[in-house]
Amino acid sequence: MDLSTPQSGHSDHKLRKLSARARTASTVLKALSHHNRLLILYLLTERERTVGELEELLGVQQAMVSQQLARLRMEGLVSSRRDGRLIYYRIAKAETVTFLRSLFVMFPEGEED
Questions:
Q1: What is the pTM of this model?
Q2: Number of independent structural domains in the chain
Q3: Of 29-33, 40-44, 51-55, 106-110, which gets the smallest average pLDDT?
Q4: Is residue 49 part of a domain?
Q5: I need a surface site. Which of 38, 48, 59, 100 has the fewest CB within 10 A?
Q6: What CATH number is attached to the domain comprising 71?
Q7: At what angle do helices 51-58 and 35-46 cross, to 10 degrees?
Q8: In the beta sheet, which residues pair with residue 88?
Q9: 18: in domain
Q10: Which of 37, 44, 27 has its CA nearest to residue 94?
């Protein structure tokens, strides 16, 4: 869509703001579009966890968990804190928890391929 020609009653300014929000949402959705990243985030909705805990829960190698956490951190979806030698990860924004819980409600158990 050409943003220089407002459509459907939106002013050019409103449409540009909406476009910027859609671009941000698209970036977040791309970060969420990986199976293991979604699992990690959902596990973090319950409580903060270490890489080791996530590794054990997911049954995958530490390197994969760390790689996925790095991507989630880059997108601002998770944050961390250090306690001695351990680093704990948590969801960065409360809105992300709400979104994830809503997303998983949309796909109830038993609807697998």
A1: 0.77
A2: 1
A3: 106-110
A4: yes
A5: 59
A6: 1.10.10.10
A7: 120
A8: 50, 81
A9: no
A10: 44
